[in-house]
Amino acid sequence: MNEEPVASSWSGGKDSCLACYKALRAGHPIGYLLNFISRESRRACFHGLEADLIKLQAERVGIPLVQKEVSPDMKKYEEEFKEAVSGLRARGVKKMVFGDIYLLEHQNWIERVCGELRVEAMEPLWNAPPEDVLNEFLDLGFKAVIVSCKADVLGKEFLGRVLDKPVIDEFKARGVCPCGENGEYHTLVVDGPMFKKGIRIMESETVLKDGFWKHWFWDIKKYQ
Question: Which of 35, 109, 211, 221 is deepest in the core (most CB within 10 A)?
């Protein structure tokens, strides 16, 4: 078994969680979870989750979390991404896990940037049928809730729903990628085989936000 620590990109959502878990089961010792948060909002990029909520999630999983503040500018983001990965490489990391499924442009970016840093990019979910990915996630016993969705694709009634097979059927009926690979929705994993203890959400608020696109966001206010 490879004893060098492996890092795993961590958004707090289902795909990064499943990719990390599959790498662990394949014998790769995950030494760090790497999470990027917005410098302006102190929330996780794309998913919008509070930095402290991601910290709690990592504690419940039991893997050290490295959080890196980044800017919205793509050129600066790449520099900051490289800084974070270089810092992990200094700790002995030579491999990093990502949860991409089929977005070639992003996978090419990951391969290029990691290649420049002499870090091997591992993609355990790559090219798997999205519905198979989601079914595997559920069949393994993970539990995730929907925390955001594109307003022109999915309504606010999806917020807070537990991801399950009936929801998958609803996605398919609407022509939505089951995994939301194009940003149709995002999740927070709250329990599963990696967790020592699940996360309980106690208070939340529904918010409509403008950005690159309008999206509904489930702002989690209280949890334990």
Answer: 35
Say how many domains are in the chain.
2
CA distances, 154 to each of 27, 44, 123, 131, 169 (Å): 38, 21, 28, 18, 13
CB 117 within 8 A of CB 87: no
Contact 163, 138 (CB under 8 A): yes
Helix (H) or strand (E) holding 139: helix 130-139
Please tell me whether residues 216 and 185 are part of one structural domain: yes
Domain holding 51: CATH number? 3.40.50.620
- Look at residue 93 and tell me if it is in a domain: yes
Domain of 89? 6-122
Bridge-based pairing of strands 6-9 and 95-97 is parallel
Residues 51 and 78 in one domain: yes
Burial category of 62 from C-beta neighbours within 10 Å (exposed 0-12, middle 13-18, buried 19 and up)? exposed
**pLDDT of 103-159, one tens digit each?**
899 999 999 999 999 999 999 999 999 999 999 999 999 999 999 999 999 989 999
Examine the domain organization and report whether 53 and 113 are in the same domain.
yes
* Relative orientation angle of helices 14-25 and 130-139, to the nearest 10 degrees: 70
3 state SS of 29: coil
